[in-house]
Amino acid sequence: MAAAESPSAALRRRDLCSRGIRLAGKMRADVVDLLDAYVEQQGLDASASVAAVEGVPLAAVERWDEQTGTQRLLENLAAYRAFRALLAQMLEEQREQLGEADAGLGRALAAVLLQVSAFVYHLEELLRLESRGIPGEEGDGPPPPPRLSLFEQKLRGLGVLRELAQWAVRSVRDLRQLAKPSAATSAASGTAPGLAESP
Amino acid sequence: DIHMQYERVGADVTMKCGSMDWDAAVTWTANGTDIDESHLNGSYLILKNVDLSQSGQYSCYEGSSWHLKYQTYLRVGTPPKEPVLMCRSNNYPKGFYCSWHLPTPTYIPNSFNISVIHGTKDMVCEKDAVPKNRCHIRYLQLFSTVKYKVTLTVTNALGKNFTTLTFDEFAIVKPDPPESVVAKPVPNNPRRLEVSWQNPSSWPDPESFPLKFFLRYRPLILDQWQHVELSDGTSHTITDAYAGKEYIIQVAAKDNDIGTWSDWSVAVHATPWTEEPKHLTTEAQITETTSASTSSFMAPPTTKICDKGAVVGSGAMAVCWTAGLVVAAYSVLFI
């Protein structure tokens, strides 16, 4: 039987979800702008299909509406931790390739990295509120991939930013589900809140 | 046996009279009417540069016995042009639908085949009973960056054609317009209009996937629209309406995060509340108001004076004026 959430915990959760939604929304807008700049400055085709890159967490999910609150938080946390590492790597590669020649892109990457880090912290706070242990970071993501060619680095970067943009939208949806009052008891009990079927 | 024959507009058509020899004496009819011999080459019927009006039943009879030797139904038409295909999700995140039509009619039966591929996975688009040229798909995955590729092939007896659409999940999200748009004047406020609406009923979960709205309004006498974007709620008060002018108002909806704006809702009309002009009245015709308002002037803007049945949004504040002296005294009390 699920324990009822205390009023203060419910308020805290809704507050964290609201702020998380705003953070994810801002992050998405910045990632979309960054994506445009990245495509242009890296000389890529915006419509190019990029195969799934190893180590880039895919936002695509089946039965999204059946996920529990805890599942949502854990998947988000794993994803954004991975993005944090990937963006740091992109920033490093950017600096190596271009030095100071493209400071604007570097600054934009750094800004998004900062937002991703903040979001990771936010997710950890939500997990603490759900009285869930926060998974250690050692278990997140595969070992660093072998050194890629410049072109492969650019394509991977495109894949990273595209998936991050999708994740930002997914995170907004996940947090809205979490903010629902029914999400509190179902997260504690491990059952899925589910979406009401429309008539 | 009745045969069916399809021919292109402008084609030359030769019909043989079944197994009759070329030099047999025959009579051809079109929809029961004899065809002039000038169209015959021996027993063959020659139709040059056929047009749509020549569709019909053609019959060939043996000359002397009038035995029916051959019958065919000729349908004159065209091969299909590239079809027009549209896909849209008005019920996100449940799924999307695709609908299609031909830009010009072919005048003969067509069949449509639609295929949907997501990455490497084939998906089934279930045909709708109504309308016919439409099918729908349930999303198996959400938040995918992999594009959907929809190919529609149209085939008829004279040829085939196809078109392909490629899109990602977010790009086709377009809600239906808001429903039940209502605009009302606000009592004692000559520059306000209160507008309310509802989420489109096709949007399955507005709580988890909230919509934002765009409201536009203008007085009928002007062409320029005013616009207001609203990130939440399903109502808005216009505060800068021109007094006494009839307004036209529409609302559109969009998912808060993805996709495009809906079409505009059905337009509604409303006129802000206006002050009732003063008349000379007698003392006996004054009726007391029940409102705490300091104004004793009140009448619905689009209704006749004292016509309570047509009162909209004015509550119980209809007042009829009689004498000028009583008007002045009354005004002093309440203004």
TrEMBL record, chain A:
Gene it is expressed from: Cntf
Residues covered by region (Disordered): 179-199
InterPro entries linked to this entry: 4_helix_cytokine-like_core, Ciliary_neurotrophic_fac_CNTF
A Pfam family reported for this protein in Swiss-Prot or TrEMBL: CNTF
Record keywords, A-Z: Cytoplasm, Developmental protein, Differentiation, Growth factor, Neurogenesis
Gene Ontology biological process terms, A to Z: astrocyte activation; ciliary neurotrophic factor-mediated signaling pathway; negative regulation of neuron apoptotic process; positive regulation of axon regeneration
Top-level lineage group: Eukaryota
PANTHER family: CILIARY NEUROTROPHIC FACTOR
Subcellular location: Cytoplasm
Protein name (Swiss-Prot/TrEMBL): Ciliary neurotrophic factor
Family: Belongs to the CNTF family.
Organism taxonomic ancestry: Eukaryota, Metazoa, Chordata, Craniata, Vertebrata
Function: CNTF is a survival factor for various neuronal cell types. Seems to prevent the degeneration of motor axons after axotomy.
Any GO MF annotation of the entry: growth factor activity
GO terms under cellular component: axon; cytoplasm; extracellular space
UniProtKB/TrEMBL annotation, chain B:
Gene Ontology CC, one term: CNTFR-CLCF1 complex
InterPro entries: FN3_dom, FN3_sf, Hematopoietin_rcpt_L_F3_CS, Ig-like_dom, Ig-like_dom_sf, Ig-like_fold, Ig_sub2, Type-I_Cytokine_Rcpt
Boundaries of every Fibronectin type-III domain copy: 177-277
Record CDD domains: FN3
The organism's place on the tree of life at top rank: Eukaryota
Membrane topology: Lipid-anchor; GPI-anchor
Transmembrane segments: 310-333
Domain Ig-like as annotated: residue spans: 10-60
Keyword Cell membrane included in the entry's annotation: yes
Family statement: Belongs to the type I cytokine receptor family. Type 3 subfamily.
Protein name: Ciliary neurotrophic factor receptor subunit alpha
